[in-house]
Amino acid sequence: MRVSATSRWLTLCGIRLGWVATLTLVALYLAGVGTETSSDARSRSRVSDVRSPANTSVNTTPIRHLEYVVTDSEITVYDIDRGNAFVRTIPLPNLGPASGVVASPVSATLYVSYGGAGGYQGNGSLLAYDLRRGRILWQRRYGTGIDSMAITPDGRTIYMPVGEFSGSGTWKIIDAATGQVTGSIAAGAGPHNTIVGPGGRFVYLGSVDYPYLEVASTATNKVVKEIGPLHGPGVRPFTINGSQTLAFTTARSFLGFQVSSIKTGRVLYSVSPPGFGFDPATFGRTPDHGISLSPDEQELYLIDTPNGYVHVFDVRGLPGSRPRDVADIRLAHPPPNDGWLQHSRDGRYVYVGRAGDVINTSTRKVVAFLPPLQQTADFLEIDWRTGRPVGTTSRYGVGYVTH
What we know:
By secondary structure, the protein is mainly β. It contains four helices and 29 strands.
């Protein structure tokens, strides 16, 4: 065991560990955040650091990159740096279907929204989980539905859509420390997907029954811009680039995606994967329920559920030239309906929700299968250093180039 070897080495060096220190090392090792081998360190050093306030110091301790996959009653954790090897399972109460997951390194808290998305599905709830101490902090049930939320970079505020079946256009503003509702934003009908932009000044609101992607100010909690009109009837999964100049949206009625200027609000390109099609009457769902921009913003990955593929587009020419299809990856376990896509923060992998497949972006091949990932569209990366979370992605595959 590595802890025992460490103790023997320290003893030889004249440093004798007491029983408290030895037990501490053992606990850190079992938690997966303790002593690392030199090969571990070399593996970590190849991965670019995550840009977050929590890890801007000169600390040279390697970062451990973990993928968290949320299902109805547990979270399964995988080690990204070790070929997505299984790490552990975190039990949760039997929540039922999850609708969203976010994490804050600042507060070391993970949040899961679950329950109904309003209307006939009923109301929903939010759970807060302490990542460092491994315990549930609180659960709040709301008098509205819930859906896929977003959290501000400072970890203080959550923007929660009240659900695509709610019959409203409301996003609730929630105090992330307590779960209490403190305000709301009025937007388009069918509130569903949410992204908070870098810096936290703007929140992007995707409504399934409104053909515009809306941008709201977090200072005023009012919509300040509409992007579109888009292929309807509303906005399905979407993402943005790091400088918040481009938006990438999907639609229920369209096989492909649209690229829009956030500055002007106009659609720049409508792009379909060449040689592929689908019959809306037969499929009856959103064909591209998963879109992810690579962290370096050079490629965009798009799921194609009717045909069982993930398409890769070169987007380096934007906004001057349209995206170009460069690869079509056949999934090993195509999802039966809606899927989801998320890049790892270093860009090495793309996780395919409701398929369970993991794509290596260098080889553009499926290289792993994670069974819990086949059951969910709720997953994200959380990065650790010396027992503390220091960075995270959202479940949306956003870009990270901010200049």
